[in-house]
Amino acid sequence: MNNFPNNENIQYQGCEVSILYNFPNNENHSFNNQENQKEIQEKKGIEAIIKAMNNFPNSENIQYQGCEVLKNISLNNQEMQIHFQFPILNTQNSTNQFGKKINWSPISNKNKEKDLQDYHQRKKQKKKEKKRKATEIVMKDKYKKTKRKKEIIPTLDLNLISIIIQAMNNFPNSENIQYQGCEVLKNLSFNNQAKKKNNNESHNQFQNPIVLKSQNQYRIQSGYSYKNQPQRRSGNQFQSQVQNQTKIRVLKGIEAIIKAMNNFPNSEKIQYQGCGALKNLSFNNQENQTRIRELKGIEAIIKAMNNFPNNEKIQYQGCGALKNLSFNNQENQTKIRELKGIEAIIKAMNNFPNSEKIQYQGCGVLKKLSLNNQENQTKIRVLKGIEAIIKAMNNFPNNEKIQYKGCGALKNLSLNNQENLDEIQSLQGIQLIINLMNNFPNNSSLQEIACETLSQLMN
Fold first, then answer.
1. Exposed e or buried b per residue across 352-378, where buried means at least 16 C-beta atoms within 10 angstroms of its C-beta
2. Closest by Cα among 353, 349, 355 to 366
3. I need a surface site. Which of 124, 129, 209, 291 has the fewest CB within 10 A?
Protein backbone atom coordinates (compact mmCIF):
# COMPACT_ATOMS: atom_id res chain seq x y z
CA MET A 1 0.00 0.00 0.00
CA ASN A 2 2.86 2.37 0.77
CA ASN A 3 4.77 1.59 -2.42
CA PHE A 4 1.73 2.13 -4.67
CA PRO A 5 -0.25 4.95 -3.06
CA ASN A 6 -1.96 5.91 -6.34
CA ASN A 7 -3.18 2.44 -7.30
CA GLU A 8 -6.86 2.26 -6.34
CA ASN A 9 -7.11 -1.54 -6.60
CA ILE A 10 -4.11 -2.16 -4.33
CA GLN A 11 -5.41 0.30 -1.74
CA TYR A 12 -8.86 -1.34 -1.81
CA GLN A 13 -7.45 -4.86 -1.41
CA GLY A 14 -5.14 -3.71 1.38
CA CYS A 15 -8.04 -2.31 3.39
CA GLU A 16 -10.01 -5.52 2.81
CA VAL A 17 -7.10 -7.68 4.01
CA SER A 18 -6.95 -5.57 7.19
CA ILE A 19 -10.61 -6.38 7.84
CA LEU A 20 -10.00 -10.12 7.50
CA TYR A 21 -6.89 -9.76 9.65
CA ASN A 22 -9.00 -8.30 12.45
CA PHE A 23 -11.69 -10.95 12.03
CA PRO A 24 -10.17 -14.20 10.70
CA ASN A 25 -13.51 -15.97 11.06
CA ASN A 26 -15.45 -13.88 8.57
CA GLU A 27 -18.76 -15.54 9.41
CA ASN A 28 -18.64 -14.51 13.06
CA HIS A 29 -17.84 -10.82 13.35
CA SER A 30 -18.16 -10.91 17.12
CA PHE A 31 -14.68 -12.42 17.25
CA ASN A 32 -12.35 -9.56 18.15
CA ASN A 33 -8.67 -10.27 17.46
CA GLN A 34 -6.84 -7.79 19.68
CA GLU A 35 -3.40 -9.23 18.84
CA ASN A 36 -3.90 -8.49 15.16
CA GLN A 37 -5.22 -5.02 16.00
CA LYS A 38 -2.05 -4.35 17.95
CA GLU A 39 0.15 -5.66 15.13
CA ILE A 40 -1.60 -3.47 12.56
CA GLN A 41 -1.09 -0.51 14.86
CA GLU A 42 2.62 -1.18 15.42
CA LYS A 43 3.28 -1.82 11.72
CA LYS A 44 1.65 1.51 10.88
CA GLY A 45 -1.26 0.01 9.01
CA ILE A 46 -3.55 2.74 10.30
CA GLU A 47 -1.58 5.42 8.44
CA ALA A 48 -1.80 3.39 5.24
CA ILE A 49 -5.57 3.05 5.57
CA ILE A 50 -6.08 6.75 6.30
CA LYS A 51 -3.72 7.68 3.47
CA ALA A 52 -5.77 5.53 1.08
CA MET A 53 -9.00 7.21 2.20
CA ASN A 54 -7.44 10.64 1.65
CA ASN A 55 -6.00 9.77 -1.76
CA PHE A 56 -9.32 8.40 -3.05
CA PRO A 57 -12.07 10.51 -1.42
CA ASN A 58 -14.46 9.75 -4.31
CA SER A 59 -14.00 5.97 -4.25
CA GLU A 60 -17.01 4.47 -2.52
CA ASN A 61 -15.35 1.05 -2.16
CA ILE A 62 -12.22 2.40 -0.46
CA GLN A 63 -14.20 4.70 1.82
CA TYR A 64 -16.45 1.79 2.83
CA GLN A 65 -13.59 -0.64 3.46
CA GLY A 66 -11.60 2.03 5.29
CA CYS A 67 -14.52 2.83 7.60
CA GLU A 68 -15.07 -0.86 8.29
CA VAL A 69 -11.46 -1.65 9.19
CA LEU A 70 -11.23 1.43 11.43
CA LYS A 71 -14.48 0.35 13.06
CA ASN A 72 -13.02 -3.08 13.80
CA ILE A 73 -9.78 -1.64 15.17
CA SER A 74 -11.58 0.84 17.44
CA LEU A 75 -14.07 -1.73 18.79
CA ASN A 76 -13.48 -2.20 22.55
CA ASN A 77 -9.94 -0.86 22.12
CA GLN A 78 -9.45 1.90 24.69
CA GLU A 79 -5.85 2.59 23.62
CA MET A 80 -6.92 3.15 20.03
CA GLN A 81 -9.80 5.38 21.14
CA ILE A 82 -7.31 7.55 23.02
CA HIS A 83 -4.98 7.91 20.03
CA PHE A 84 -7.63 8.01 17.29
CA GLN A 85 -7.61 11.79 17.30
CA PHE A 86 -4.20 12.44 15.82
CA PRO A 87 -3.05 13.43 12.44
CA ILE A 88 -1.90 11.53 7.95
CA LEU A 89 1.55 10.29 8.10
CA ASN A 90 4.31 12.67 7.05
CA THR A 91 6.22 10.43 4.68
CA GLN A 92 9.25 12.68 4.41
CA ASN A 93 10.23 12.52 8.09
CA SER A 94 8.71 9.15 9.03
CA THR A 95 10.68 6.78 11.22
CA ASN A 96 9.99 3.24 12.31
CA GLN A 97 9.76 2.00 15.92
CA PHE A 98 13.58 1.77 16.14
CA GLY A 99 14.11 5.39 15.11
CA LYS A 100 15.25 4.58 11.55
CA LYS A 101 14.02 6.65 8.65
CA ILE A 102 11.52 4.85 6.41
CA ASN A 103 12.11 4.84 2.65
CA TRP A 104 8.66 5.13 1.05
CA SER A 105 9.86 5.19 -2.56
CA PRO A 106 9.18 2.03 -4.61
CA ILE A 107 12.01 -0.16 -5.89
CA SER A 108 13.57 1.47 -8.92
CA ASN A 109 13.57 -0.33 -12.25
CA LYS A 110 17.21 0.58 -13.00
CA ASN A 111 18.94 -1.24 -10.17
CA LYS A 112 16.50 -4.00 -9.25
CA GLU A 113 19.13 -6.57 -8.21
CA LYS A 114 21.04 -4.11 -6.06
CA ASP A 115 17.87 -2.84 -4.47
CA LEU A 116 16.74 -6.38 -3.70
CA GLN A 117 20.10 -7.21 -2.08
CA ASP A 118 19.87 -4.06 0.02
CA TYR A 119 16.32 -4.97 0.93
CA HIS A 120 17.31 -8.45 2.19
CA GLN A 121 20.22 -7.02 4.18
CA ARG A 122 17.95 -4.48 5.81
CA LYS A 123 15.49 -7.26 6.58
CA LYS A 124 18.18 -9.33 8.35
CA GLN A 125 19.36 -6.31 10.32
CA LYS A 126 15.79 -5.54 11.26
CA LYS A 127 15.31 -9.09 12.63
CA LYS A 128 18.48 -8.85 14.71
CA GLU A 129 17.49 -5.44 16.00
CA LYS A 130 14.02 -6.74 16.82
CA LYS A 131 15.44 -9.63 18.90
CA ARG A 132 17.77 -7.29 20.75
CA LYS A 133 14.97 -4.87 21.49
CA ALA A 134 12.72 -7.71 22.65
CA THR A 135 15.23 -8.78 25.30
CA GLU A 136 15.55 -5.18 26.49
CA ILE A 137 11.79 -4.76 26.74
CA VAL A 138 11.47 -7.82 28.99
CA MET A 139 13.87 -6.24 31.47
CA LYS A 140 12.02 -2.94 31.59
CA ASP A 141 9.21 -2.24 34.04
CA LYS A 142 5.56 -1.73 33.10
CA TYR A 143 5.81 2.04 33.06
CA LYS A 144 8.61 2.04 30.51
CA LYS A 145 6.74 -0.49 28.38
CA THR A 146 3.62 1.65 28.19
CA LYS A 147 5.73 4.75 27.61
CA ARG A 148 7.52 3.09 24.68
CA LYS A 149 4.21 1.87 23.29
CA LYS A 150 2.90 5.41 23.23
CA GLU A 151 6.04 6.60 21.44
CA ILE A 152 5.49 4.01 18.69
CA ILE A 153 1.99 5.30 17.99
CA PRO A 154 2.17 7.43 14.84
CA THR A 155 1.52 11.12 14.57
CA LEU A 156 -1.09 11.73 11.91
CA ASP A 157 -1.45 15.00 10.02
CA LEU A 158 -5.20 14.83 9.55
CA ASN A 159 -7.83 14.06 12.14
CA LEU A 160 -9.29 10.57 11.78
CA ILE A 161 -12.71 11.63 13.00
CA SER A 162 -12.88 14.22 10.21
CA ILE A 163 -12.08 11.51 7.64
CA ILE A 164 -14.98 9.36 8.83
CA ILE A 165 -17.37 12.32 8.80
CA GLN A 166 -16.10 13.37 5.36
CA ALA A 167 -16.78 9.87 4.01
CA MET A 168 -20.33 10.01 5.40
CA ASN A 169 -20.88 13.43 3.81
CA ASN A 170 -19.41 12.39 0.44
CA PHE A 171 -21.65 9.31 0.16
CA PRO A 172 -24.96 10.21 1.84
CA ASN A 173 -26.83 7.60 -0.22
CA SER A 174 -24.53 4.69 0.61
CA GLU A 175 -26.18 2.66 3.35
CA ASN A 176 -23.03 0.68 4.11
CA ILE A 177 -20.81 3.75 4.56
CA GLN A 178 -23.42 5.48 6.74
CA TYR A 179 -23.74 2.35 8.86
CA GLN A 180 -19.99 1.89 9.28
CA GLY A 181 -19.46 5.59 9.96
CA CYS A 182 -22.11 5.68 12.69
CA GLU A 183 -20.56 2.65 14.35
CA VAL A 184 -17.03 4.12 14.29
CA LEU A 185 -18.27 7.35 15.90
CA LYS A 186 -20.21 5.31 18.45
CA ASN A 187 -17.11 3.30 19.37
CA LEU A 188 -14.88 6.37 19.63
CA SER A 189 -17.28 8.19 21.97
CA PHE A 190 -17.87 5.16 24.20
CA ASN A 191 -16.32 5.18 27.68
CA ASN A 192 -15.70 1.50 28.42
CA GLN A 193 -13.63 2.29 31.49
CA ALA A 194 -16.49 4.12 33.22
CA LYS A 195 -18.76 1.11 32.73
CA LYS A 196 -16.18 -1.21 34.27
CA LYS A 197 -15.78 1.16 37.20
CA ASN A 198 -19.52 1.22 37.90
CA ASN A 199 -19.68 -2.57 37.80
CA ASN A 200 -16.80 -2.83 40.28
CA GLU A 201 -18.40 -0.32 42.62
CA SER A 202 -21.72 -2.19 42.67
CA HIS A 203 -19.86 -5.45 43.34
CA ASN A 204 -17.87 -3.95 46.22
CA GLN A 205 -21.05 -2.82 47.93
CA PHE A 206 -21.66 -6.47 48.85
CA GLN A 207 -18.12 -7.02 50.07
CA ASN A 208 -17.77 -3.80 52.08
CA PRO A 209 -20.90 -2.76 54.03
CA ILE A 210 -21.03 0.99 54.63
CA VAL A 211 -22.96 2.63 57.45
CA LEU A 212 -24.47 5.88 56.24
CA LYS A 213 -25.08 8.48 58.96
CA SER A 214 -26.69 11.02 56.72
CA GLN A 215 -26.97 11.80 53.04
CA ASN A 216 -24.77 14.88 53.32
CA GLN A 217 -22.41 13.61 56.05
CA TYR A 218 -19.30 11.51 55.81
CA ARG A 219 -19.57 7.72 55.69
CA ILE A 220 -18.24 5.45 58.43
CA GLN A 221 -16.58 2.50 56.80
CA SER A 222 -16.25 -0.71 58.81
CA GLY A 223 -14.39 -3.78 57.61
CA TYR A 224 -13.42 -1.79 54.54
CA SER A 225 -10.45 -2.91 52.47
CA TYR A 226 -8.97 -0.21 50.26
CA LYS A 227 -7.12 -2.87 48.29
CA ASN A 228 -10.42 -4.16 46.95
CA GLN A 229 -11.56 -0.76 45.70
CA PRO A 230 -11.90 -0.18 41.96
CA GLN A 231 -9.06 1.70 40.37
CA ARG A 232 -9.76 5.23 39.24
CA ARG A 233 -10.02 6.00 35.60
CA SER A 234 -6.79 7.37 34.31
CA GLY A 235 -6.82 10.94 33.10
CA ASN A 236 -6.00 9.87 29.55
CA GLN A 237 -8.94 7.47 29.34
CA PHE A 238 -11.48 9.97 30.63
CA GLN A 239 -9.96 12.79 28.61
CA SER A 240 -10.03 10.75 25.40
CA GLN A 241 -13.78 10.22 25.67
CA VAL A 242 -14.44 13.91 26.33
CA GLN A 243 -12.10 14.97 23.52
CA ASN A 244 -13.71 12.59 21.04
CA GLN A 245 -17.20 13.75 22.04
CA THR A 246 -16.15 17.37 21.54
CA LYS A 247 -14.29 16.70 18.27
CA ILE A 248 -17.26 14.85 16.79
CA ARG A 249 -19.52 17.79 17.65
CA VAL A 250 -17.10 20.44 16.32
CA LEU A 251 -16.53 18.51 13.08
CA LYS A 252 -20.31 18.23 12.60
CA GLY A 253 -20.39 14.52 13.22
CA ILE A 254 -23.72 14.82 15.04
CA GLU A 255 -25.23 16.31 11.87
CA ALA A 256 -23.85 13.39 9.84
CA ILE A 257 -25.34 10.81 12.23
CA ILE A 258 -28.80 12.41 12.31
CA LYS A 259 -28.73 12.89 8.53
CA ALA A 260 -27.96 9.19 8.08
CA MET A 261 -30.88 8.26 10.35
CA ASN A 262 -33.23 10.54 8.39
CA ASN A 263 -32.01 9.31 4.98
CA PHE A 264 -32.45 5.63 5.89
CA PRO A 265 -35.55 5.47 8.15
CA ASN A 266 -36.21 1.84 7.20
CA SER A 267 -32.67 0.58 7.85
CA GLU A 268 -32.61 -1.22 11.19
CA LYS A 269 -28.82 -1.31 11.41
CA ILE A 270 -28.41 2.44 10.78
CA GLN A 271 -31.15 3.31 13.28
CA TYR A 272 -29.52 1.03 15.85
CA GLN A 273 -26.02 2.47 15.37
CA GLY A 274 -27.36 6.02 15.16
CA CYS A 275 -29.22 5.74 18.47
CA GLY A 276 -26.12 4.16 20.05
CA ALA A 277 -23.85 6.94 18.78
CA LEU A 278 -26.18 9.67 20.08
CA LYS A 279 -26.40 7.84 23.40
CA ASN A 280 -22.61 7.82 23.82
CA LEU A 281 -22.18 11.39 22.60
CA SER A 282 -24.74 12.77 25.08
CA PHE A 283 -23.28 10.98 28.11
CA ASN A 284 -22.37 13.67 30.70
CA ASN A 285 -21.96 16.27 27.95
CA GLN A 286 -24.31 19.27 28.18
CA GLU A 287 -23.15 20.86 24.93
CA ASN A 288 -23.77 17.68 22.96
CA GLN A 289 -27.18 17.25 24.62
CA THR A 290 -28.17 20.74 23.49
CA ARG A 291 -26.72 20.25 20.01
CA ILE A 292 -28.61 16.99 19.48
CA ARG A 293 -31.88 18.67 20.50
CA GLU A 294 -31.28 21.62 18.15
CA LEU A 295 -30.58 19.27 15.23
CA LYS A 296 -33.80 17.33 15.93
CA GLY A 297 -31.92 14.28 17.12
CA ILE A 298 -34.57 13.56 19.76
CA GLU A 299 -37.16 13.32 16.97
CA ALA A 300 -34.90 10.88 15.10
CA ILE A 301 -34.50 8.64 18.18
CA ILE A 302 -38.23 8.53 18.98
CA LYS A 303 -39.04 7.93 15.31
CA ALA A 304 -36.65 4.97 15.24
CA MET A 305 -38.29 3.50 18.36
CA ASN A 306 -41.76 3.92 16.84
CA ASN A 307 -40.74 2.47 13.46
CA PHE A 308 -39.19 -0.66 14.99
CA PRO A 309 -41.24 -1.48 18.11
CA ASN A 310 -40.24 -5.16 18.01
CA ASN A 311 -36.49 -4.59 17.65
CA GLU A 312 -35.03 -5.08 21.13
CA LYS A 313 -31.65 -3.54 20.27
CA ILE A 314 -33.14 -0.32 18.90
CA GLN A 315 -35.48 -0.01 21.89
CA TYR A 316 -32.56 -0.47 24.27
CA GLN A 317 -30.32 2.07 22.54
CA GLY A 318 -33.23 4.51 22.16
CA CYS A 319 -34.12 4.37 25.86
CA GLY A 320 -30.44 4.81 26.74
CA ALA A 321 -30.11 7.82 24.44
CA LEU A 322 -33.20 9.50 25.92
CA LYS A 323 -31.88 8.80 29.41
CA ASN A 324 -28.55 10.51 28.72
CA LEU A 325 -30.22 13.41 26.90
CA SER A 326 -32.60 14.09 29.81
CA PHE A 327 -29.89 14.07 32.49
CA ASN A 328 -29.88 17.50 34.22
CA ASN A 329 -31.46 19.07 31.13
CA GLN A 330 -34.96 20.51 31.65
CA GLU A 331 -35.35 21.58 28.01
CA ASN A 332 -34.64 18.08 26.76
CA GLN A 333 -37.02 16.60 29.35
CA THR A 334 -39.80 18.87 28.08
CA LYS A 335 -38.94 18.13 24.44
CA ILE A 336 -39.11 14.36 25.02
CA ARG A 337 -42.56 14.72 26.60
CA GLU A 338 -43.85 16.93 23.76
CA LEU A 339 -42.63 14.45 21.13
CA LYS A 340 -44.37 11.56 22.91
CA GLY A 341 -41.11 10.01 23.99
CA ILE A 342 -42.62 8.89 27.31
CA GLU A 343 -45.17 6.83 25.36
CA ALA A 344 -42.36 5.19 23.39
CA ILE A 345 -40.43 4.32 26.57
CA ILE A 346 -43.40 2.77 28.38
CA LYS A 347 -44.38 0.90 25.20
CA ALA A 348 -40.88 -0.59 25.01
CA MET A 349 -41.11 -1.74 28.64
CA ASN A 350 -44.50 -3.35 27.97
CA ASN A 351 -43.36 -5.01 24.73
CA PHE A 352 -40.27 -6.57 26.35
CA PRO A 353 -41.29 -7.49 29.93
CA ASN A 354 -38.62 -10.23 30.12
CA SER A 355 -35.72 -8.09 28.88
CA GLU A 356 -33.61 -7.05 31.86
CA LYS A 357 -31.65 -4.42 29.95
CA ILE A 358 -34.76 -2.70 28.54
CA GLN A 359 -36.45 -2.72 31.95
CA TYR A 360 -33.27 -1.25 33.45
CA GLN A 361 -33.01 1.50 30.82
CA GLY A 362 -36.76 2.17 31.00
CA CYS A 363 -36.73 2.65 34.77
CA GLY A 364 -33.61 4.80 34.45
CA VAL A 365 -35.02 7.16 31.83
CA LEU A 366 -38.35 7.55 33.70
CA LYS A 367 -36.34 8.37 36.81
CA LYS A 368 -34.46 11.13 34.94
CA LEU A 369 -37.58 12.52 33.24
CA SER A 370 -39.57 12.78 36.49
CA LEU A 371 -36.87 14.61 38.46
CA ASN A 372 -38.27 18.02 39.51
CA ASN A 373 -40.70 18.02 36.57
CA GLN A 374 -44.37 18.06 37.59
CA GLU A 375 -45.73 17.78 34.05
CA ASN A 376 -43.62 14.71 33.31
CA GLN A 377 -44.63 13.16 36.64
CA THR A 378 -48.31 13.54 35.73
CA LYS A 379 -47.77 12.29 32.17
CA ILE A 380 -46.00 9.14 33.38
CA ARG A 381 -48.86 8.35 35.78
CA VAL A 382 -51.53 8.90 33.11
CA LEU A 383 -49.68 6.58 30.70
CA LYS A 384 -49.42 3.89 33.41
CA GLY A 385 -45.68 4.31 33.73
CA ILE A 386 -45.83 3.73 37.49
CA GLU A 387 -47.39 0.32 36.82
CA ALA A 388 -44.60 -0.48 34.35
CA ILE A 389 -41.92 0.41 36.93
CA ILE A 390 -43.49 -1.68 39.70
CA LYS A 391 -44.00 -4.57 37.27
CA ALA A 392 -40.31 -4.46 36.32
CA MET A 393 -39.28 -4.53 39.99
CA ASN A 394 -41.60 -7.48 40.67
CA ASN A 395 -40.38 -9.42 37.63
CA PHE A 396 -36.70 -9.01 38.54
CA PRO A 397 -36.51 -9.04 42.36
CA ASN A 398 -32.85 -10.19 42.36
CA ASN A 399 -31.56 -7.60 39.89
CA GLU A 400 -30.08 -4.85 42.06
CA LYS A 401 -29.71 -2.42 39.14
CA ILE A 402 -33.40 -2.60 38.22
CA GLN A 403 -34.36 -2.35 41.89
CA TYR A 404 -32.18 0.72 42.36
CA LYS A 405 -33.43 2.52 39.23
CA GLY A 406 -37.04 1.56 39.91
CA CYS A 407 -36.90 2.73 43.51
CA GLY A 408 -35.30 6.00 42.41
CA ALA A 409 -38.03 6.50 39.79
CA LEU A 410 -40.77 5.99 42.42
CA LYS A 411 -39.02 8.47 44.69
CA ASN A 412 -38.88 11.16 41.98
CA LEU A 413 -42.46 10.50 40.84
CA SER A 414 -43.88 10.88 44.37
CA LEU A 415 -41.99 14.10 45.16
CA ASN A 416 -44.54 16.90 45.75
CA ASN A 417 -47.18 14.94 43.82
CA GLN A 418 -50.02 13.56 45.94
CA GLU A 419 -51.78 11.79 43.06
CA ASN A 420 -48.64 9.84 42.17
CA LEU A 421 -48.07 9.05 45.83
CA ASP A 422 -51.59 7.61 46.12
CA GLU A 423 -51.08 5.62 42.91
CA ILE A 424 -47.86 4.05 44.23
CA GLN A 425 -49.54 3.13 47.52
CA SER A 426 -52.53 1.57 45.72
CA LEU A 427 -50.16 -0.57 43.64
CA GLN A 428 -48.48 -1.90 46.83
CA GLY A 429 -45.32 0.05 46.17
CA ILE A 430 -44.56 0.36 49.90
CA GLN A 431 -44.52 -3.41 50.39
CA LEU A 432 -42.34 -3.75 47.30
CA ILE A 433 -39.73 -1.38 48.75
CA ILE A 434 -39.74 -3.23 52.10
CA ASN A 435 -39.12 -6.51 50.25
CA LEU A 436 -36.25 -4.82 48.40
CA MET A 437 -34.60 -3.84 51.68
CA ASN A 438 -34.90 -7.40 52.98
CA ASN A 439 -33.44 -8.88 49.78
CA PHE A 440 -30.36 -6.62 49.77
CA PRO A 441 -29.39 -6.02 53.42
CA ASN A 442 -25.72 -5.33 52.60
CA ASN A 443 -26.25 -2.96 49.67
CA SER A 444 -25.83 0.50 51.18
CA SER A 445 -26.99 2.40 48.08
CA LEU A 446 -30.24 0.46 47.84
CA GLN A 447 -30.86 0.76 51.58
CA GLU A 448 -30.33 4.51 51.41
CA ILE A 449 -32.64 5.20 48.47
CA ALA A 450 -35.26 2.77 49.83
CA CYS A 451 -35.31 4.60 53.17
CA GLU A 452 -35.68 7.96 51.44
CA THR A 453 -38.51 6.67 49.22
CA LEU A 454 -40.35 5.07 52.15
CA SER A 455 -40.04 8.24 54.20
CA GLN A 456 -41.46 10.24 51.30
CA LEU A 457 -44.35 7.82 50.73
CA MET A 458 -45.27 7.59 54.42
CA ASN A 459 -45.27 11.36 54.89
1. beebebbbbbbbbbbbbbbbebeebbb
2. 349
3. 124
